[in-house]
Design goal:
Layout lengths: L1 E6 L8 E6 L8 E11 L1 H8 L13 E9 L11 E5 L9 E5 L4 E2 L6 H21 L7 E4 L5 H12 L3 E6 L2 H9 L4 E4 L5 H8 L5 E6 L6 H6 L1 E9 L13 H5 L4 E3 L3 H4 L3 H16 L7 E6 L3 H9 L6 E5 L1
Parallel strand pairs: 8-9, 8-11, 9-10, 11-12, 12-13, 14-15
Antiparallel strand pairs: 1-2, 3-4, 3-6, 3-15, 4-5, 5-7
Helix pairs in contact: 2-3, 2-9
C-alpha cells in the first residue's frame, strides 16, 4: 500500500486527507509511476475549492516527476526505469505512486533532477506558451507581467531576458522586488507603494505595453487593461485574487480595440506533437542555463494543508514542491 491525498468534499485546506491506497496495475495506454517529487500549483486550489469541478471523492495535483514502474498494453515509447515528468490531468499527483495515461508523460534529460522537473514542468510550459504562442514577444518590446516573484513569474523573467524583452513586473513587497530583479526583471513595481498603471505609462512614455500577462485576476484586471497600448492583448491566465468580474465588451473598444484571451496550458499541450515541441524548448533553455528554477519551499506530502495555506496567503517565492 502507498499513500495519497484525497478530498471527499470541496472546501479549505482541511478537506485534504492523507489515505492509504493501492494504485493497482496500469491498463492499456497507462503507466504506473513512482513519484519522487510533486509540483504545487495554484490550480490545485481551484480543484480543491470546487472552482474547477471534478468527481468526488477525488485527488489533487497535476504535476510530478519520477520513475516508471510498469507499463500497460500498447505503451511502446516508455519502459520501466525511465525517468519522466508530466504537467496535466487527470488530477491525482498528490501521491507516492499513481497510475496515469502514458500520453501525458515525457522523458526528462539526465541533467534534470526529479525535484527540478516537478518544479518546472507546469510553470515552465506555461511560460513557454505565454511568451512564445499566446503572444509571441519580440526583442526590444516592453511587457507587463504580474506576480513576477512566483514560480511562473521568475521563470518568465529569465525567459524574457534571454529573448531581449524588457520585463516590467509587479510584486507586493521589497523582498519580492529584489528577487525578481535578481532573476532578470528589468523594472519592478511594488503595487502596495505606487500605482502600477501610472508607472507603466511613465516607463513607456505614455504609450502602454503591447501585452499584459495577469494571473492575479479580480484585483488587477481593470487596471491591467489601462496599461495596454491600442490593439494590445490582455492575457488573463489565473485568478489568485478571485474571478474576474463580468464586463462589457465596449471596455475593450474604448481603450483602443484591445484583444483578450483566457488560455489554459492543457489546450496547448492537447496534441502530443505540441507537448513534445514545447518540452524540447523548455529543456533546451534549462540545459543552456538560461532558466534556473528557484525551489523556494519543500513540504512533506503529509504537510500539504500547510503548503496550501502558504500558497493562498501568497507567502511562496519561486516554486514549491511536495515530497512523497
Amino acid at each position: 500500500m502507498t499513500t495519497c491525498i484525497q478530498i471527499n468534499q470541496n472546501g479549505g485546506p482541511q478537506v485534504m486527507e492523507l489515505v492509504e491506497h493501492d494504485p493497482g496495475q496500469p491498463a492499456a495506454g497507462e503507466v504506473r509511476l513512482r513519484q519522487h517529487a510533486i509540483g504545487l500549483n495554484y490550480i490545485d486550489v481551484y480543484f480543491r475549492t470546487g472552482l474547477y469541478p471534478q468527481p468526488l471523492p477525488g485527488g489533487l495535483g497535476l504535476e510530478g516527476a519520477g520513475e516508471v514502474e510498469a507499463v500497460g498494453e500498447g505503451v511502446d515509447f516508455l519502459k520501466p526505469g525511465d525517468r519522466v515528468a508530466y504537467a496535466g490531468g487527470p488530477t491525482g499527483a498528490y501521491a507516492q505512486v499513481r497510475v496515469m495515461p502514458a500520453a501525458h508523460l515525457v522523458r526528462i534529460p539526465d541533467s534534470l533532477s526529479f525535484e527540478t522537473a516537478a518544479a518546472v514542468m507546469l510553470k515552465g510550459l506555461t511560460v513557454q506558451y505565454l511568451l512564445r504562442r499566446t503572444y509571441r514577444v519580440q526583442a526590444g518590446q516592453s511587457i507587463l507581467f504580474h506576480a513576477v516573484a512566483g514560480g511562473v513569474g521568475l521563470l518568465a523573467c529569465q525567459w524574457a531576458k534571454a529573448l531581449g524583452v524588457r520585463m516590467i513586473g509587479t510584486v507586493g513587497d521589497a523582498h519580492k522586488a529584489e528577487l525578481a530583479k535578481a532573476h532578470g526583471c528589468t523594472e519592478v513595481i511594488n503595487y502596495n507603494e505606487e500605482s502600477f498603471v501610472q508607472k507603466v505609462r511613465e516607463l513607456t512614455g505614455e504609450e502602454g505595453v503591447p501585452v499584459v500577462y495577469d494571473s492575479v485576476g479580480k484585483s488587477t484586471f481593470e487596471d491591467s487593461l489601462d496599461c495596454l497600448a491600442p490593439l494590445g492583448m490582455m492575457v488573463s491566465f489565473g485568478n489568485a485574487s478571485g474571478a474576474v468580474p463580468e464586463f462589457a465588451l465596449s471596455e475593450l473598444t474604448k481603450r483602443g480595440s484591445l484583444f483578450i484571451t483566457r488560455p489554459r496550458l492543457f489546450d496547448y499541450v492537447a496534441k502530443r506533437a505540441d507537448l513534445e515541441a514545447m518540452c524540447n524548448e523548455l529543456f533546451a533553455m534549462l540545459e543552456a542555463g538560461k532558466l534556473q528554477p528557484l525551489i523556494g519551499q519543500r513540504y512533506a506530502l503529509a504537510d500539504v494543508a500547510e503548503a496550501h495555506k502558504d500558497l493562498e496567503a501568497r507567502k511562496l517565492t519561486g516554486s514549491a514542491i511536495l515530497l512523497p
